[in-house]
Amino acid sequence: MALSANDAFAAGGGSRRRRRYGRGRRGALSEINVTPLVDVMLVLLIVFMISAPLLTAGVPVELPKTEAGAMQDQPEPLTVSIRADGSIYVQEDPIAFSSLAPRLQAMADGEPKPIYVRADGRASYEVVARVMASLSTSGFTAINLITDTGGPSSGGKPEAAGP
To answer: Is 79 within 8 Å of 116 (Cβ atoms)?
Structure first.
């Protein structure tokens, strides 16, 4: 009669071993393997880090830089964007200057909502001033001009003029 390797050890054949503290048998592994969970979470983190900046602005404009700090978040403001060519957008929709104030009043629904004016740094001052004057005369009081941070300081050293 032939014995398998397991039978030989069970029968006490081969080398004699002492079993200490009852650890002879290997118990079931009861730990959770978290490596796949960590991998999935890191991939999701990377996806959100890449996609989050793409969701912030609808109309691409190059904002002028100032030394003013960023404002605290406020609930759902109305955004008016002015591109370098003078075209005006409400939220992400192009609009004519003549229908700007009625459209914003309809969107505000009688509530005093803040309005953010995002003008391209190369946009004509005349267009920006006309838009802000139109908003002011239409009854909007919380008009904010959005700029980018990191521009020249108003109280700093003047730049040296070239020869």
So the answer is: yes
Strand partners, 94: 89
Pair of tokens at residue 39: 């991998």
Contact 86, 124 (CB under 8 A): yes
Two structure tokens written together for 27: 């118990």
How confident is the prediction for the chain on average, in pLDDT?
Answer: 76
Of 47 and 161, the structure prediction assigns the larger pLDDT to 47
Which stretches of the chain are DSSP H helices?
5-10, 35-51, 100-108, 125-137
What letter does residue 54 receive in the DSSP assignment?
G
Residue 71 confidence (pLDDT) above 70: no
pLDDT tens for 127-154 read 888 988 888 888 887 888 887 776 665 5
Task: Give every strand in the sheet of 115-119, ordered side by side.
Answer: 93-95, 88-90, 78-82, 115-119, 143-146
As a whole number of angstroms, the distance between CA 146 and CA 131 comes to: 14
Phi, psi of 119 (to 5 degrees): -110, 135
Helix (H, G, I), strand (E, B) or coil at 39: helix
